[in-house]
Write a structure and sequence with these properties.
CATH class: Mainly Beta
Number of domains: 1
CATH superfamily: ApaG domain
CATH architecture: Sandwich
Largest sheet: 5 strands, antiparallel
Mean pLDDT: 95
Structural class: mainly beta
Radius of gyration: 16 Å
Helix content: under 10%
Distance between the termini: 25 Å
Shape: elongated
Number of helices: 0
Strand content: over 45%
Low-confidence stretches: none
Length: 130
């Protein structure tokens, strides 16, 4: 699990390799990830947008921006959590993802919440350290 805390909003990520959707012979590697967002603050917040930076093992970067997550813009009251799952395909057997959410409080304040960097590693992959 990977974790980040920004302004009392906690984001945890649990990535997992989807072997049944991957085809290494065709350079297709697919991961899923579960995200949990917990509002530890005293204000309600709405998740407005998301930004992802996805970097494969060759250094190829793909940036993804958009409204909400999985078609929703959830509101988290103080003490509430929201969980969702999504996925990411790569052309290489490993990579890294990180990003942020844009949140808005009920009084109109907008701020960014970090999504921690997490690695996407094919099980059994031998690593070379430089």
């Amino acid at each position: 699990m990977y974790r980040a805390l920004t302004r009392e909003i906690e984001v945890t990520v649990e990535p997992y390799y989807l072997e049944e959707q991957s085809d290494p012979e065709d350079s297709r590697y697919v991961w899923g990830y579960r995200i949990m967002i917990v509002n530890h603050s005293s204000k309600a917040v709405r998740l407005m947008t998301r930004y992802w930076n996805i970097t494969d093992a060759n250094g190829q970067v793909d940036e993804v921006n958009g409204p909400g997550v999985i078609g929703k813009q959830p509101v988290l009251q103080p003490g509430e959590s929201y969980e969702y799952s999504s996925g990411c395909p790569l052309d290489t057997p490993s990579g890294v993802m990180f990003g942020h959410y844009s949140m808005e409080t009920t009084d109109g304040e907008v701020f960014e919440v970090a999504i921690p960097a997490f690695s996407l590693d094919t099980p059994g992959l031998s690593r070379v350290l430089n």
